[in-house]
């Protein structure tokens, strides 16, 4: 049982590192990395818990998540490239054209 | 069989309306033929229906096809009712309308909105047929409103003319006042009878308090006053002359204004039990008959004179139905439909010949140039005056007889109306067709209309002669309606009196206009001159009543309401809501600052909150 707790704690730590990265970093690319971290924490949990309860579902599902994460990153990076061309920066605080200011 | 014929009769004009209304641009030149053809179908099937109904005794076909509105206890079916009364009505409506459509093909040929005209005309007839065939009050009200709408559209047909638009509005608004009464009547009927279907309502009339029946009778009659242009809501009808002339023929003869008479006759089981409501009907009818006739005496507009005569004749019909002689009222409706349509078509023919001129002071001597119009117009005039043996005699005479046997005041009013009718009708006739032409240019231009316009006039003239001969048959056909019985021993004397009075009126017109034996200087007499002026101003006081009492009062009253209710309370509530929204908006506007990080914080907070709720709910 201790093992399971450990796994959940590690995955939680991963997840919060990701959240905090997204919250406090201003560089868009780093923020995307934070997002990936969150997704991977979920993957980690899925695979290990799946291994404990002896099913393949967790692994299969994690592959699905990986695929979606990959395509999401592809899109996200494309957007970042375009934004960079537009604004010559990757700092999110400079992207406020929808704001009221 | 009857099913199918009924539906054909009712929906053929609707099909015409759809074709002419939607595909008007494609069928443009054929609109007239399409519109007339659908009416032809309708007329043929309605005459078959009339034949079927009258050949079997006490024929009643009452069928609800489906429920149209169902709300709790209120169940309103879409149902049709065919009995002798409605069979006669649909025949009159579709037959006369058919000839008016036929006439319009030529009359409106040069109009740029040819198909729009026929679309409206078809819709008009459809509404009227729906009104007549409905088996409950609500469906009748649908037809009732449809007729009102169609009349508005047709009176304002030449909408580029300001006066036509105004007249259309006036007709619509004045009708609304009557409709409000009718609607209230339906509400009262439903709340006391629990149904609006005729058969269920009339079955239970004995169970209801007399005062309630009187209330219903009066409320329904208010609707009839508006639709049938009786005093005091008659003002829209003379103005309705702004529409094309065949439309006037349609409004006055077959559709619209006769709806009120039909409605009272249809509600006869209610009226027969309420002498008070019936008396009001008869009295308003008699009063309108004389009032409108007096206004027709001095008018100089060919169409308006005929329009006033319609109000007057509808008044006679109301006298008939108000005195409990429902068959006589409907019989007068029947004969009136023929000769009034004829008179209007004749007037249209005259206008056509004279470049749409309406002023009878500029006409005269037209009988040489327009032989057919002249003869048919004469027949129509004689029928209108009730000269034996033309159609009007039989129907009007019956009404006068009933008036004689029931009420003195009403009798004197209607018998006085006979003289006036004869006088103004023949004043019009002599001034238009006889006497010397007073405008050479117009007279030179005059010509007989082409056969498409004269055939309907000839047919209607024929019916204006023979239409009245079937009175005994008519009486037995409608004897199933409740009616008051009289002994008829002195009936012949009454007919004689009315004949003498009518001829007196004609002679008076003859000696004043055709062979002016009566000196013109008589008009300089102080009293006669004053009287003439009052009549010419249409009882000036009367038309100004609305302005003085009703309009001023309404304006004053609505001004007060506007200031103290609208501005403070209604606007206040609206403003309060606006203020609250603005307040909330300014409070949370800061959230949307366009900064990415704020959004993310919010997203995470909200997701956490949702997660928390999910865990909480297990």
Task: Explain what you see.
- The complex is a heterodimer of chains A (101) and B (618).
- Chain A has 101 residues and is mainly α.
- Helices cover 78% and strands 0% of the residues of chain A.
- Chain A starts with a helix and ends in a 14-residue tail after the last helix.
- Chain B is mainly α and 618 residues long.
- In chain B, helix 11 runs antiparallel to helix 16 and helix 15 crosses helix 18.
- At the A-B interface, helix 1 of A face helix 26 of B.
Low-pLDDT stretches of chain A are none
> Oligomeric form of this entry?
heterodimer
Low-confidence stretches of chain B: none
Q: What would the principal axes of the Cα set say about the shape of chain A?
A: elongated
Structural class of chain A: mainly alpha
Cα(first) to Cα(last) distance of chain B is 69 Å
Overall geometry of chain B comes to globular
- pLDDT averaged residue by residue of chain B: 83
Main sheet overview of chain A: none
N- to C-terminal distance of chain A: 54 Å
Question: N-to-C SSE series of chain A?
Answer: HHH
Average pLDDT confidence of chain A is 87
Radius of gyration of chain A: 17 Å
Number of helices of chain A: 3
Using only C-alpha atoms, the radius of gyration of chain B works out to 29 Å
Beta-strand content bin of chain B: under 5%
Please give the structural blueprint.
The complex is a heterodimer of chains A (101) and B (618).
Chain A: H1 2-24, H2 28-52, H3 57-87
Chain B: H1 2-22, H2 24-27, H3 31-55, E1 61-71, E2 74-82, H4 84-107, H5 114-133, H6 137-155, H7 162-193, H8 198-203, H9 210-227, H10 236-239, H11 245-254, H12 259-266, H13 268-271, H14 275-296, H15 302-322, H16 326-353, H17 371-385, H18 391-406, H19 408-433, H20 440-445, H21 451-466, H22 471-477, H23 491-514, H24 526-536, H25 541-588, H26 596-616
Identify the notable features of this structure and list them briefly.
heterodimer, A: 101 residues, mainly alpha, Helix Hairpins, 3 helices, B: 618 residues, two-stranded antiparallel ribbon, 26 helices
